[in-house]
Design a protein that fits this description.
The complex is a heterotrimer of chains A (647), B (292) and C (238).
Chain A lengths: L1 H24 L3 H26 L7 H17 L5 H23 L5 H20 L1 H4 L5 E2 L12 H23 L2 H11 L1 H6 L4 H27 L1 E2 L6 H14 L4 H19 L1 H25 L4 H20 L7 H15 L3 H13 L13 H4 L9 E12 L2 E12 L3 E5 L6 H8 L7 E6 L2 E2 L4 H5 L3 E3 L12 H8 L8 H5 L4 H17 L15 H13 L5 E5 L7 H16 L3 E6 L2 H7 L2 E6 L2 E6 L1 H6 L1 H8 L13
Parallel strand pairs in A: 5-10, 5-11, 8-9, 9-10
Antiparallel strand pairs in A: 1-2, 3-4, 3-6, 6-7, 11-12
Chain B lengths: L1 H33 L6 H17 L4 H29 L4 H21 L15 E3 L2 E3 L1 H23 L1 H11 L1 H6 L4 H27 L5 H16 L6 H20 L6 H13 L14
Antiparallel strand pairs in B: 1-2
Helix pairs in contact in B: 1-5, 1-6, 1-8, 1-9, 1-10, 2-3, 2-4, 2-8, 2-9, 3-4, 3-8, 5-6, 5-8, 9-10, 9-11
Chain C lengths: L1 E10 L2 E11 L4 E6 L5 H9 L6 E6 L2 E2 L5 H6 L2 E4 L11 H8 L10 H15 L1 H5 L10 H14 L4 E5 L7 H16 L4 E4 L3 H7 L2 E6 L2 E6 L1 H6 L1 H8 L1
Parallel strand pairs in C: 3-8, 3-9, 6-7, 7-8
Antiparallel strand pairs in C: 1-2, 1-4, 4-5, 9-10
Helix pairs in contact in C: 3-6, 4-6
The chains are: A alpha/beta (647), B mainly alpha (292), C alpha/beta (238).
């Protein structure tokens, strides 16, 4: 514990002290300018990493937020006479608000559409900065004077320290944020947005908040940028800068504060690198060597595909050969960035820091912080007394897909405190029915009432009513550990408001949530696998983890969608045991199953579906003897009508 | 008088709008087979235009230059697919967004250094003397743009509907796995779609160059509007792009008339963000079903 | 005609197939039955190349095909009508059928003329599809889509046809029809590997049956033999 604290925090403190001390030792204005830029880009890239790394979206608007922040600061000083801190706050606010406004529509879709929206936003921003000449001075540019800071004028060295202090603050705040529920939610929604919604976490608002925060950091960096250069031009914030920033984040390594810092070093140094020919040649040759080695190693170990190994070598080779042939490397600046970025994206997708982190963690075995003892189960999952009345009522529920009537008018009443089985042959509409109940699909027609109130639309809203579910095709947050999977879904555990989270006041509720999550893992027999990431669990354990995660919602109604599918016999017995325990805590369960024996052992009532319709309902024994059910399960084949047709 | 000016602006804008529609159609071609688009498509337009100009300067006659330029576009499209898209698709990652941007940047830089940063005129045998229609003047050059756009889009649509290979193309966009089971190679279909999208880009370059001149930045404004058209119309709807393209072209022409030419890109950009907010799948697009 | 030897395959951490072997002789209908999650569909996917097996061999007409792309295996004469039917929703019924014959038709022109006879044959087998030939496949009912999926597979004139859960999600009357169709295919000498959840019906049409559990074949034999030993069946099928 102490070792970990000393090591990780120690490195950070040493790094920042060294950075702060450099100007005292080297009095060189060039070095100082470079360091200042490094601190500013550090803040900028940490912001970009929130969207690109944690949210996993290609964000092309960050350069625009830098520009908007810069102009906001510049104008609030020159027009409104603001001081340094208030001007910077304005920049941050501009980033936050515009970021939020952009994210609202843009984050509804993923992938290319999002990238397109952010790209358009950048172009729009540059157009506005260019054309609103009365305010921004247009293409002529805007001169900004560095304002006073608490009544003092700030010299270059002082400004550098200010930037550095801000970087340190941002660093700490982001670390607090990312190690809280927020950080987990970001990663969860990247792995499975569907499950994030189903666990009541709210994919959309987390995305918007994350994007707005990242943009606010872009704005802050913009303010510092304005006071550093003291001259602004719309042309500085175009596409090309965006590509360089992405290069920084990707090369540094996504999802890592240190990665963003390395990226910032690179972005700050890159222009200098190009202006010195010898340096450029050395670096490109080193790049080629690295690509060759990595490619050969990857091919030998069969961890990379041929293209992944060869393409970076070709790209770096082009860089080396081109570097010799070309007269002026400055002219080919964009091509050089492009080739470097190409090699990294193809050959080293996890970035330098990702690569280094794997290596370092092997070198220094640092134990993760100890977990608290598990809470007692009554705390994590309080026992509720069911009232015995009807809990969920479905009336004439229908869901069609084109011409296929997946659910064709089913009416079911689920009594509270019971285990209600839903069975039927493959494709009989069981899974579609629960997908409609849990809000993934909207019904084509029909009513759904929970406690006599209509169920809301959408998974997120349904999840908040006290219905929780598992998925037949596992929807775990594969990169998160088993413990974190449960913690993400933990209901009512995270109440501390965002500003306090940023200041690091979420530690206590974090511990409590860990303890509660451990209790649920214990219930499902996973307490010894708490730290293993979900994708590395065995198949059976992944199924149990789905249940533990659903229980973290403290549900009134738990829907288990084929929990026994693909389980080996010992695991099936374990499953029966778990379901019984859950039931004893007063939770109503809808159990979708294919195995008749599982259903017989557990269920109070069984509804049988076939072809999207209810064909029987009653106790397991009654249902088993129903001739319609027998027919549906065994199928019938008549001998008639088999006239031959020449084929 | 005023209404004639407005009509004139709208009509000239609409012809430009057809070019946006053509480029947007290129996005749809690749999106339908692979759910990916080439973010460097603008550079393809520009590079093909430069290449065609070089052919002309070498003394190749105009009508021979056209197939040459188109072929160049196809080759570029295939190269983008191979270098930037295939691996990412195999890994089911969104790396292709970054990679196509990067390849575009590389192309841009190459053009800057090979052909220079200045804008150059693009000679054409088609006259630009205005003809009058109800007081609105239209040039044969503009008409040639319309003919070219409709011809190439018509041919590709015909190919998609009337040939078995074209139907295979649609099968891959409907269900990639099932298409593979029919013996249709999805990888090759995606390749084909990138080739076609390169062809479309080259056609757009050849059509638009006589109007806009040729330079490294010629496509940077074009491409933004093509993005808008594609998103507003929906990335999977066929002729919706033409309607939206014409509408947007007219709209921005009027905007630049009333607000100044610097603002001409804004309606497209605002339209795009609005469309994403109100109809994320586009005006003509279909909603998708999330599967578990 | 088709045989798999000691096949291993799975998704991510879950190993679904662990050493499955089976054989389908020319002109025979072979059924693969077993409980849900036993690995039946995975077997089909591993054969047709939708899933790459991690170990073992798949022989089609004596030639190893494991690890090939699905499209290549299809061109070698294997037609797979997959679970869930997977018809091309936006395309018309007839286009769906034409695409079934994709690997043996000219790509640009003349493919209609060349496929006219085969098309007629499929329409004779499923007259309903003839009525629906211009309707887009996504608007067909579940049963019609299943007929289309089978017809599409037939269009390839395959050496072997895989039929995965053709009765899934269909009303009992339609299920009967599906099995009647399978009988006709059998009578016409089509080599068929059938995965079915309705064991009884499958036993009824098949020449030979494999029972699968936990990714392995645990019992096999002619339907009559297996019928006799019903205890075995019930134990495995749950």
């Amino acid at each position: 514990m102490l070792k970990r604290l000393l090591f990780i925090r120690g490195v950070e403190i040493v790094a920042i002290t060294m950075l702060a001390a450099i100007p005292l030792m080297v009095s060189n204005s060039y070095v100082l300018a470079l360091l200042t830029l490094l601190a500013i880009y550090g803040i900028l890239l940490i912001g970009l990493d929130v969207t690109v790394g944690y949210l996993g979206q290609v964000n092309l608007a960050h350069a625009a937020f830098l520009g908007l922040g810069a102009y906001a600061s510049g104008l609030s000083v020159s027009l409104l006479g603001f001081g340094m801190l208030s001007a910077l706050s304005v920049s941050m606010l501009v980033g936050l608000i515009l970021g939020g406004l952009l994210a609202f529509p843009a984050l509804r879709l993923e992938g290319p559409q999002f990238a397109l929206a952010t790209l358009s936003f950048s172009a729009l921003s540059v157009t506005v900065l260019n054309e609103w000449e009365a305010l921004t001075g247009g293409a002529q540019g805007l001169h900004v004077s560095r304002p006073i800071f608490f009544g003092h004028t700030v010299n270059a060295q002082g400004f550098y320290w200010l930037c550095l202090i801000l970087l340190a603050f941002v660093w700490m705040a982001m670390r607090n944020l990312l190690s809280s529920q927020w950080g987990r939610a970001f990663e969860a929604l990247r792995d499975s947005p569907i499950a994030t919604d189903a666990m009541g976490v709210g994919t959309y608002r987390h995305k918007v908040a994350g994007f707005a925060m990242g943009s606010a950091l872009g704005g802050l960096a913009g303010g510092l940028y304005a006071f550093n250069f003291q001259y602004l031009q719309p042309q500085s914030f175009v596409y090309e800068l965006m590509v360089i920033l992405l290069l920084g984040v990707v090369l540094g390594g996504r999802k890592s504060l240190w990665g963003a810092f390395f990226g910032a070093c690179l972005v700050a140094l890159l222009p200098n690198l190009l202006s010195n020919r010898l340096l450029f040649q050395v670096i490109s040759a080193l790049g080629l060597l690295a690509a060759l080695l990595a490619g050969a190693r990857g091919l030998m170990k069969k961890t990379t595909q041929p293209f992944q190994a060869v393409a970076p070598v070709i790209a770096m080779g082009l860089l080396v050969v081109g570097g010799m042939m070309v007269k002026n490397t400055e002219d080919w600046r964009k091509a050089i960035f492009a080739l470097m970025l190409f090699s990294v994206v193809v050959g080293l997708p996890e970035g330098i820091m990702g690569f280094a982190a794997r290596f370092l963690s092997r070198l220094f075995r640092i134990d993760p912080p100890a977990l608290p003892p598990a809470s007692i189960l009554d705390v994590a999952l309080p026992v509720k007394k069911p009232d015995g009345g009807p809990l969920l009522i479905l009336q004439e529920l229908k869901r069609y897909f084109g011409g296929v009537k997946a659910v064709d008018g089913i009416s079911i009443t689920v009594q509270s405190g019971q285990i209600h089985g839903l069975i039927g042959p493959n494709g009989s509409g069981k899974s579609t029915a629960v997908n409609v109940i849990s809000g993934l699909y909207s019904p084509s027609s029909g009513k759904m009432l929970l406690h006599d109130k209509a169920l809301p639309r959408g998974m997120f809203n349904v999840a908040r009513t006290g219905i929780s579910r598992t998925f037949q095709n596992l929807q775990l947050f594969s990169e998160l550990s088993a413990l974190e999977n449960v913690m993400v879904a933990m209901k009512g555990a995270f109440r501390i408001p965002l500003p306090l989270v940023l200041m690091g006041f979420a530690k206590r509720e974090e511990k409590r949530a860990q303890a509660d999550a451990l209790a649920l893992l214990e219930l499902t027999g996973l307490d010894n696998q708490a730290r293993i990431s979900a994708k590395d669990l065995t198949y059976g354990d992944q199924r149990f983890l789905e249940i533990a995660r659903a229980l973290a919602r403290k549900p009134e109604l738990l829907i288990l969608d084929e929990p026994a599918a693909g389980l080996a016999l010992p695991d099936v017995h374990k499953l029966l045991d778990i379901i019984r325990q859950i039931h004893q805590r007063g939770i109503t369960i809808i159990l979708i199953e294919h195995h008749m024996d599982v259903v017989t052992k557990l269920c109070d009532v069984v509804t049988v579906l076939d072809g999207g319709k209810v064909i029987a309902e009653g106790s397991a024994e009654e249902v088993k003897c129903n001739p319609k059910v027998i027919e549906a399960y065994l199928g019938t084949a008549n001998e008639e009508n088999t006239a031959d047709i020449a084929l | 008088m005023n209404s004639i000016i407005i009509a004139q602006m709208a009509v000239s804008g609409a012809f430009m709008g057809l070019v946006y529609a053509l480029i947007a159609y290129g996005f749809q071609l690749t999106f339908s087979t692979s759910k990916s688009i080439n973010f460097g498509q603008g550079e393809l337009v520009m590079l093909s235009a430069f290449f065609s100009l070089t052919l002309l300067n070498l003394g190749v006659p105009y009508w021979l230059m056209v197939p040459g330029g188109l072929l160049f576009g196809v080759i570029l499209g295939l190269a983008v697919e191979r270098a930037g898209v295939r691996l990412a698709l195999e890994q089911k990652s969104e790396g292709w967004i970054l990679l196509t941007i990067i390849i575009g940047l590389l192309g841009f830089s190459a053009a800057e250094n090979i052909w220079g940063r200045d804008d150059r005129p693009f000679p054409t045998p088609i006259s630009s003397d205005a003809l009058q229609f109800f007081g609105v003047s239209i040039t044969p050059l503009e008409i040639s743009v319309a003919i070219g756009v409709f011809a190439i889009m018509g041919l590709i649509e015909l190919f998609k509907r009337k040939t078995l290979l074209g139907k295979a193309f649609e099968a891959v966009s409907a269900d990639r796995d099932a298409a593979e089971l029919m013996g249709i190679s999805a990888t090759r279909t995606v390749m084909l779609s990138y080739g076609l999208s390169g062809l479309v880009a080259a056609m757009a370059g050849i059509l638009v160059s006589p109007i806009t001149t040729v330079g490294p930045t010629m496509a940077s404004a074009l491409i933004l509007k093509a993005f808008s058209v594609a998103v507003v119309a929906g990335l999977d709807s066929g002729f919706g792009v033409v309607v939206i393209g014409i509408f947007l072209g007219a709209l921005e022409s009027l905007t630049s008339f009333y607000l100044g030419s610097g603002w001409r890109e804004t309606p497209g950009l605002i339209l795009l963000i609005l469309a994403l907010a109100v109809r994320p799948n586009g005006v003509f697009g279909k909603a998708t079903i999330r599967k578990v | 005609m088709l045989s798999i030897e000691n096949l291993y395959a799975g998704y991510g951490t879950s190993k679904v197939l662990s050493g499955a072997s089976l054989e389908v002789a020319q002109g025979k209908v072979v059924a693969l039955i077993g409980a849900n999650g036993a690995g039946k569909t995975t077997t089909m996917r591993a054969i047709s190349g939708m899933l790459k097996p991690s170990q073992g061999r798949v022989l089609l007409d004596g030639k190893p095909v494991q690890g090939f792309d699905a499209s290549r295996i299809a061109r070698m004469g294997l037609a797979h009508a997959p679970e869930g039917r997977k018809v091309f929703g936006p395309l018309s019924t007839e286009d769906n059928l034409l695409l079934g014959a994709y690997s043996r038709l000219p790509l640009f022109f003349g493919f209609r003329a060349k496929s006219a006879d085969d098309l007629e044959r499929v329409y004779d087998l499923f007259p309903l599809l003839r009525e629906r030939r211009l309707q887009s496949a996504g608007t067909l009912s579940g049963g019609e889509q299943q007929m289309l999926a089978i017809g599409r597979a037939l269009m390839a004139n395959p050496k072997v046809m895989l039929l995965d859960e053709p009765s899934m999600g269909l009303a009992p009357v339609i299920v009967q029809e599906v099995f009647n169709t399978i009988r006709r295919l059998k009578a016409a000498g089509i080599t068929l590997l059938l995965v079915e959840q309705f064991a009884e019906s499958a036993l009824d049409v098949a020449d030979y049956v494999y029972v699968m559990e936990h990714g392995r074949i645990v019992a096999q034999g002619a339907p009559a033999e297996l019928q006799k030993d019903r205890r075995v069946l019930e134990a495995y099928l749950g």
